[in-house]
Design a protein that fits this description.
By secondary structure, the protein is mainly beta. The chain contains 7 helices and 54 strands. Helix 2 packs antiparallel against helix 3 and helix 3 packs across helix 4. It comes from Shuttleworthella satelles DSM 14600.
Amino acid sequence: MGGSMKNSICRRRRTRVVCLVLLLAVLGTILPLPLRGAGRRFGRVFAVEDLAVLKSYAKEVSYEQAGLGKGNWTNDFILQRGGSDYHGFCVNPNKSTPGIGTSFRVSEQRDEQVRKVLYYGYGSRTNAMGELGLSPEEQLVISHVTLARAMGDPHWSVDLNARGKEQAERYWKLVKSRPAPKENLLRAFLCHNKDAEGQDLLYFWQAPKEEEVPGTSFVIRKRSAADPLTEKNRCYSLAGVCYGLYDDAACRKQLQEICLTREGESQRYEGTFQNLTPGKQYFVRESRGPANGSYRTDERVYSFTAKAGGNVHEIGSMELKDEPVYDVPDILWRKKDAQLSEKGQGDGSLFGAEYSIRFYPEDLPSAEAAKDKKATYLWLMRTDEKGEIHFQDPRCYVSGDPLLEYQGKKVLPLGSYLIQEKKAPRDAKGRAIYALDPKLYLLKTVCGSDHQVKTVHPLIDGQREQILRGGILLEKRETSYPDGRDYTAAMSLEGIRFSIYNRSAKTVAVDLNRDGIYSEDERFAPGAKIREMICKKYSQEEAMRLYGLKSEAKEVYLATTDDDGDGYDRSLPYGKYGIVEETMKTGGEFRLVNQDYCLGERQEKTVEISRDLQGGKLCQTDIDGKKLTFAENNRPIRSDLLLRKIKEDSKEKIQVPFLLIREETGEKHIVMTGADGSFDSRAGHIAHSHKTNANDRFLDRIQLDQGSKETKSGEWQIKQDKPLTVSEMTEDAGTWFGLGRYGNMARIDDQLGALPKGHYRLMELSCDKNRGYELVNLRFAIGQDPNRPGEIADLGTVSDRPIKPEIPRTEGKVYAPRLGDLGQLWIFLICGTFALGSMAVLLAIRGRK
């Protein structure tokens, strides 16, 4: 009975032990805690539930409180998972702090650098931060930002001051100098916040001490050698990787083969060789590479010795890393001028175009497929002087996430890249040179059937960019009316030619015949003449409607590249252009470009076609921003009048006034010969500006009868109330005719002639010096000979004839001579003499009888 009782007691004890073992096994499946005894090192990695919940904040420290910065803080988070509490850190300093009760999706984080930061940092049993002399508050902040740095967050140093960055760098160097903890000593778990804007957290489990657990199995773990390239990238997979087990280094005889399987949602794969002989050396080699070729086949042979002695459950492991395939591009993007390829044209440069490059870790079928997806990386890069983005050139990088680097070179992992121009090339003033390309381009890095990586480029030859183009509009005025209010009457500025020259640094392409083809003879090197513009007349309303040009004149003279007259032009590319009002020299003199105006010297103004003219607007200002108006160089044809005045009978030089009239406008002024009888309107004789037209004060004493509109000689008559007195008049008055078409007066210019081109009437006025003489009334012209436009009108000697006496006779009446009339006296004497002679003859005859 005693034996039976003893057996019963033993059975009950065994039952209790079995139950306890089962209970511990269940707990081991849900808690990542070490189970002591039974030779176990730690519990299972994954809990039954894959969620953690933020329970509380154990401690909150601001950067400023710790003396490490301003405007930010961090927390010692308490996370609950599987019924246990863990201390955690934020790994996204730039995101919002999660609230109590936030749920997180959990995955294990095996990165060595991350585990080292945790192992030697705040809250760890192996904390080494005391070596740096940091307080607990400082340790929490520095551990927090260093952990974010190790996780690749570009904002890890946000709001740190200089001291904070210095302490973070010291801890980073300390961590890098220490060995990584074994997995049985520390494991890290990433808690991913389901709220995209909220922070992710990281907690760790740490064993109280290292415990050796023998075994006869051997685990092969496989991971990427470049996590930043492959993590969360669907294009990379180790699926299909298999390893063979051999007992010789030459791997001639395969003992076992295992194909690795994925660990949860991670990118890690593992497989176990079973029933190994303790103490024996084995060799392993990759027998099959990844099915999709996203990793290079590992040709190396690895060896290990199965652990000897102890328990049949003894386990060994080896972690191997495969090199992912990737591209190391040089030229990522090439931009070209649509007409002149990579050279650009005019003053345009292909430098500085900025492109956003968004990376998606998957094989997108089209650019539109990324519409609702968030890019993993975003870079902003710019083109160089040749219009190219060289991926390896740091000068091409502008901003965004750090470029992915591996083995000292910038690389592109497998995936899809959306490229879009965000900023067109600009000049020094910030104005765009080329039109912004709105298209979205899909570039993909793929692994071909030959396991060679290649980049599928949408425009390998280069994106053809259209340079911005505009046109030119200038207003032509004459020098006499620079404000543009008027023009010399009976004259026109039409027909004046302007030439356009390329003053840019490079060749320009101009489609002169508007056929859309830029042929070789439509390319103009720097300094070459491109085309001409002809000055035309527009009404005030037309100038405003077509070109927005306000003018006070009723007629406006314009020259433009707008050949079709719609108010727009897109012919000239971005650049500088010289505009020259052309002259033609013959025999050392300038010839007319039209019949009414002549040019002084050849002048040029420079304009710039820039971003402001996008849409075909016309340039109306010069390079200095002044209104593009040519008014300085054109002079209306003007000349002067010369004459000498004498009495015909006595040849006496006399000083007399004249009424001088320009027939085209009716403008009239009183001019007067000098004491020597001469008149000279040239400014060299008497300046036009000296007492200009001073004798016009006597115009109110003169009435002019023009008769009919046809200006034949003799039809214009003058009526005076009384003769003028020369001594009362101004002898040294300057002469100037300047009445414009619309009643404005041209400014007096002593460099020009006094009389504009036209027809003139010179009419002598009655005065005390020309009594008894016939008054002169004659007509002359100025500037009518196109070969001699400035020829002076020299009337030579103008003589006054004495007035001959006339006897008025009336039919049926007899006029008796009056005493004192000289003619009548002679008649009286002749008749008397004849009468006396007749009487003497009669008396003599009578005496003979």
